[in-house]
Known about the structure:
The protein is of the alpha/beta class. 34% of the residues lie in helices and 17% in strands. The chain is globular, with a radius of gyration of 20 Å. It starts with 16 loop residues before the first strand and ends in a 7-residue tail after the last helix.
Amino acid sequence: MKIENKYAVTEFDRAHNIALQTNYSANNRVTDSAASGTALATGYKTNNGTLGQTADGTRVESIMAKADNVGYESGIVVTCYVNHATPGAFYAHRESRNDNDGIVADFMESSVDVIFGGGTRFFNDYFAKNNTTFDEAFKAKGFTILKEQSEMASVSEGKVVGLFAETNIPLMRNGRGDYLPNATAKALEILTNNVKKDGKKGFVLMVEGSQIDGEGHSNNIEGVLAETRDFAKAVGVAMDYADAHPGTLVVVTGDHETGGLTIPSNKTDFTMPESGISYGFSTTGHTGVMLPIYLYGTGAERINGILDNTELSRSLQRMLGVWEDAE
């Protein structure tokens, strides 16, 4: 096993404040990504497998859609395909997370300005059924289309789509490199320039280290560590941005825990000095444990204690002025 950071400070330790969130779904004590993503995006519980609507089928809008309506830009950066459950929760309204055509259709009707990730297979399949192509459809919506990660350097403003894989972006152990921190930095640059150019109020950006989850499902601790280190780099990019742009709040959390990971000591005699650690998984599925919320920047002090994932979303929406307590 490779050596982890031991006692070294991580980007998460930079947080100005820390809270905890519960994350059960409307129909299960252990959530899936669709239900928890919907809770984080909208402030409402739903059943596992459902995106952007409540358990009774009522459509609910995400913080991104609401913010767009009052003068904000929005973006999504992920390492999975962009119609996957968590990113989909921020723009789609579907009973099933597996309704790929419906989720793609909802994206094309959404107000998302910048999106980086994978998923060309799903978009091409959808467009073929609708007698158009990826390029034609996105150009008609005013997007600059990027086909290779290297092309990110060529854009600095506007509506931008970059889908760089047929499905998921490769895992870190399969050579993904610095895609996630680079894409995060580029999305921040584009959104900032758009806000300045168009006189917008600001932006909402969702960044996901998507494949920490998959490595947890595989109980691959080296993979979990690699994906988490990569995500930490993206967190550092966001925190550095907040330092340079007062008024920015960075919120770092998860939609659920995967694998039931524990970190026991290698020895039981705790009178001894450092005895090393090992890693143990209890499941290849999700668990119901509470998740940390790391807060950095303007407003970090306003979210405290133990709260539900819906309460976290509602608090953030209140900060933007898009949540009505009558809801």
